[in-house]
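Entry:
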Amino acid sequence: MQKLTNRSVQVDRSPMTFGEKIYLPAIAKGLGITLSHIFKKKATVNYPEEKRPFSPVFRGLHVLNRDEEGRERCTACGLCALACPAEAITMEAAERKPGEENLYREEKYAAKYEINMLRCIFCGYCEEACPKDAVYLSETIMPASYKRKEFIYKKEDLLIPHPKKQETK
């Protein structure tokens, strides 16, 4: 068992001077600190007018890529959904119809592909797991919203536009 010792601390109780009683030195010191902050560079950014620089490895919104001929690259293998630690990706595979096999390289496709951005942690594991380079994270910032449904992105929202269909417009 340890022996406790009594230690006392001496406090200076000498009377305060007149300057200390009216707090003038403390007020002057506070004003000096305030004035020094007025001339420093501002830490805030005027957002719509100014854009803050992002890191070159910034991960933004997900995008489903197309190949050179405008076909969907996703073959519904499900590796992106398995790799996602937040379980934000939901996918359902479907078989192509008998007349469509010659138009597309793969027999399977993603009939349903959804990403819940409220669950996504933007880790990039889905991008690394995809063997066909169908999923990648763009440099686009996720828009703000007040409704939960607007944060669940479906396949139509994620696919980049078809290049051949845009040429005809």
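Helices lie at 18-21, 24-38, 79-83, 125-129, 155-158, 163-168.
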